[in-house]
Design goal:
By secondary structure, the protein is α/β, with parallel strands linked by helices. The chain has helices spanning about 1-10, 15-30, 35-45, 75-80, 125-130, 155-165, 190-205, 225-235, 270-285, 300-310, 320-325, 325-344; strands spanning about 50-55, 55-60, 65, 85-90, 105-110, 115, 140-145, 170-175, 215-220, 240-245, 265, 290-295, 315. The protein has an 8-stranded parallel barrel with strand order 3-4-7-8-9-10-12-13, surrounded by 5 helices. Strands 5-6-11 form a 3-stranded antiparallel β-sheet. Helix 4 (about 75-80) links the parallel strand 3 (about 65) and strand 4. It is globular, with a radius of gyration of 19 Å.
Length: about 350
């Protein structure tokens, strides 16, 4: 029903307006008695072979929602009822910011892709914290960044503010230095500034009674040499893992009219490159750390390919928009099927 009726209707309108409309509708639908039970019974699968334990956390299934969809933690309880094993909120910044001028979100339907240049639009970390206080046992990741007006040399303080504000309310952290939509942000991926940033967050982590996992989200556009640096940085800073990958600035073989728009490209065109990065990190590090695989997952086959390449968990964003919640169910069913085949 989603792909045949709902998606064609939604895709007739501006994608950013549709995003907010969908949020509003889901909030209303889930207030109807029995709605949550209906969605959970249709999409949520619970099975022993889906469970994962990584960096001290237990995931009910390995399919999560990537950051950027529920930036301000408005819908994580409802979204978890669609079958996700975990929800990543953000990217959050210390102060609220409007993001880049509109229009800043584009569907590339012929390519099954999206280009966005949102620019970390969010209501600020404090507002998200108030919503997270109402969490009903959803495993939450907190994706953190810096405000646009904060210079790179002062960026550590922005990440520190977000880290401390969210600490009680998220299960793991993701350091986002790989978005192409905040000026000069990707320069923080260089070895020296990134090592310094992660070490500072580990200092904050060590002050807590119980430390929480810190992961790094990287761009798919890094060279092999830069990826080797990432492996070294993970080892040196003792962070807990990597999310591979964020959106790309590459534009190969696109067909859609919006292909020249500035911003980060996500969806099917990213499928192969994201898998290549996952495989590179897994092989070159000898699986020294967990990897969350994200980028171009539009089918169960895409998901299984990333798991086989070395991903421990998965995240959806553009694939979820194009395929709907059935994609989550299909992936989890494929994982169960593979586990049963391995036992046979």
């Amino acid at each position: 029903m989603y792909k045949s009726v709902i998606r064609p209707l939604l895709f007739r309108f501006d994608p950013e307006k549709v995003h907010y409309f969908t949020f509003s509708m889901l909030q209303k639908v889930f207030k109807i008695p029995g709605a949550q039970s209906f969605f959970r019974s249709n999409y949520l699968i619970e099975h022993k072979s889906l469970e994962r334990e990584l960096f001290g956390l237990k995931f009910k299934n390995p399919v999560g929602l990537a950051a950027g969809f529920d930036k301000d933690a408005k819908l994580y309880n409802e979204l978890s009822s669609l079958g996700f094993g975990f929800i990543e909120i953000g990217t959050l910044t210390p102060k609220a910011q409007a993001g880049n001028p509109k229009q800043r979100l584009f569907r590339l339907k012929e390519d099954q892709a999206i280009i966005n240049r949102m620019g970390f639009n969010n209501a600020g970390v404090a507002e998200a914290v108030e919503r997270l206080k109402k969490n009903k046992n959803v495993l939450i990741g907190g994706n953190i960044g810096k405000n646009k007006v904060t210079a790179n040399e002062d960026a550590v303080e922005d990440y520190r503010i977000c880290f401390n504000a969210l600490f009680k309310y998220v299960d793991y952290f993701v350091v986002n230095v790989s978005s192409p939509n905040t000026p000069n942000l990707r320069a923080l991926q260089d070895k020296a500034p990134l090592t310094a940033l992660l070490n500072e967050l580990q200092v904050e982590n060590a002050k807590q009674e119980r430390q929480k996992p810190i992961l790094l989200k990287i761009a798919p556009d890094l060279t092999d040499s830069q990826l080797m640096d990432i492996i070294d940085i993970v080892a040196d800073t003792k962070i807990d893992g990597v999310i591979a990958t964020n959106t790309t600035i590459a534009r190969q073989n696109l067909q859609s009219e919006h292909k020249a728009e500035m911003g980060g490209l996500s969806g099917k065109p990213l499928t192969n490159r994201a898998t290549e990065v996952i495989r590179f990190l897994a092989e070159k590090s000898n699986k020294a750390f967990p990897i969350i695989g994200v980028g171009g997952i539009h089918s169960a086959a895409d998901a299984m390919e990333k798991l086989e390449a070395g991903a421990d968990l998965l995240q959806l964003y553009t694939g979820f928009i194009y395929e709907g919640p059935q994609l989550i169910k299909d992936i989890n069913k494929a994982i169960i099927k593979k586990a049963n085949q391995d036992k046979a």
